[in-house]
Design goal:
A: about 120 residues; mainly alpha; B: about 325 residues; alpha/beta; Peroxisomal Thiolase, Chain A, domain 1; 11 helices; globular
Chain lengths: ~120, ~325
């Protein structure tokens, strides 16, 4: 770990968010569609072998945004197909993303015990 | 029988029913807006003592009705029929909130035009002699509307600039045959107008064609000029919808720029309140009418007003299935007397 790791993670992650913000502001795409678009793009970039080197460079800046989730899904499927064959197509994605999804659900649920949704300002 | 129908879509009452009283209950943001000091009741928590936004909306309706009935010096038993509606599925704010009154109920849905629909039906009932006093009520709540039509508040999505802010508020009106200073002299019931727009975040644009249609038909039915009215007041077209309305009216050869007002643009301060294109929701037109428009008519500051609440007739299902958002608008003629 050195300073450049942090620096690259921040500017890459920030750049991805800024680009997506343009999509939200300038197009009529609903937020849900934008999210699906990101996941699919991440999976495709993973398949093309582009995302992994990018993630090695930017670290959390590339793995935390939804693009990284798409890449994780693809990676999981690829490995499961290697180990399990055809059935791996249906297994790998869920296995690889299990920690992230479960964490989101569990922490989301815990947070809902403590906090009430408030009106927007 | 006396001929009371007028033109294609209107009624001119031979004996006008009166708006005997009105009441408005609003949330925190509305109470901080330009009309803040005119509303009857507010709750800084926006929950009105309830646990959920839905129950809060029902309670707002109940409070608004209680206040309106009280101001008319009546009791719930003296109200013959109640005309109520909101934006929620199956109209639960009305049915849950008004249960305890035990007044015979017509549950209505006209999206944000419901206040006009309720007032029109209440006025028709009184004019026809089906009862002495009717109650018309509508409401909307930012928390319930976001959940119903967009995303729950806990999802924390971003709002585009064309989006409007659903007013947290409820307006109630007692319509009766006892003389007051505001009478409903006529109504024009609107048709469904659909220009094929599909953007649920830009409702002003979806509703403007309906408003333009109703206003034009109204002026034709009553053979009036637009400048006969002190104000022509639309419900919640907002900044985007207003400019579309002006364009459409101009194409019909009518100019309403001088005397037009929009409740959605009046209830919030666009500069300081970050409400983007303006206010919307059933409560927007209803609370502005109760708190701001009716007092001006009572004092005679405005003599004759055409109140045109506008509604976008969409549901989340129709939207998700790619259907367009049709609009509707009803015209109510309110006169100082």
């Amino acid at each position: 770990m050195n300073f450049m790791d942090y620096f690259n993670a921040f500017w890459v992650g920030g750049l991805i968010c800024a680009l997506v913000q343009i999509l939200l502001d300038r197009t009529k795409l609903m937020p849900g569609r934008v999210m699906v678009l990101l996941v699919c793009t991440g999976a495709v970039l993973g398949f093309l072998g582009i995302y992994q080197p990018f993630q090695d460079f930017a670290g959390a800046g590339a793995s935390v945004p939804l693009l990284g989730f798409g890449n994780t899904l693809f990676k999981g499927v690829k490995e499961a197909v290697k180990d399990e064959g055809f059935i791996g197509i249906f297994m790998g994605g869920f296995k690889a993303s299990a920690v992230g999804i479960s964490a989101a659900l569990i922490f989301g649920y815990l947070a809902s015990w403590v906090f009430e949704p408030k009106m927007k300002k | 029988m006396i001929q009371r129908t007028k033109g294609a879509q209107s009624i001119a009452f031979s004996e006008s029913p009166y708006i005997m009283s009105s009441a408005s209950v609003v949330g925190k943001k509305e109470s901080e807006g330009p009309l803040g000091k005119y509303f009857d009741m507010t709750d800084p928590e926006n929950l009105f003592g309830e646990e959920t936004w839905e129950a809060a909306e029902g309670t707002m309706q109940k409070e608004a009705c209680t206040l309106a009935i009280g101001k008319a010096e009546l009791t719930p038993e003296k109200i013959r029929y109640l005309f109520g509606g909101d934006l929620l599925r199956q109209g639960i704010a009305t049915s849950m909130g008004l249960e305890s009154f035990q007044i015979p109920l017509f549950g209505l849905f006209g999206a944000c035009s419901t206040s006009g629909e309720a007032l029109a039906l209440a006025a028709m009932c009184v004019a026809a002699g089906y009862g002495e006093h009717m109650l018309a009520v509508t409401s909307s709540h930012f928390g319930t509307a976001e959940k119903e039509f967009r995303f729950p508040l806990s999802y924390a999505n971003q709002r585009p600039l064309s989006a409007q802010w659903t007013v947290t508020g409820s307006g109630a009106f007692v319509v009766g045959n006892k003389k007051s200073h505001v009478r409903i002299s006529g109504i024009t019931i609107g048709k469904i107008v659909d220009y094929g727009l599909k953007d649920s975040q830009n409702m002003g644009a979806c509703m403007a064609p309906a408003a333009a249609d109703t206003i034009a038909v109204h002026l034709q039915d009553f053979e009036r000029e637009a400048d006969e009215y002190s104000r022509i007041i639309t419900g919640d077209l907002g900044y985007v919808g207003q400019s579309i309305l002006f364009d459409l009216m101009r194409k019909k050869g009518l100019d309403i720029m001088k005397n037009h007002m929009d409740c959605g643009m009046t209830i919030f301060d666009q500069q300081t309140q970050d409400t983007h294109a303006g206010g919307s929701g059933c409560g927007c037109a209803a609370t502005t009418l109760a708190a701001y428009i009716l007092p001006k008519l009572e004092k005679g500051e405005w003599k004759k007003v055409l109140f045109v609440p506008t509604g976008a007739l969409m549901s989340t299902v129709s939207f998700n299935e790619g259907e367009s958002v049709p609009g509707i608008a009803h015209g109510i003629v309110l006169e100082h007397c």
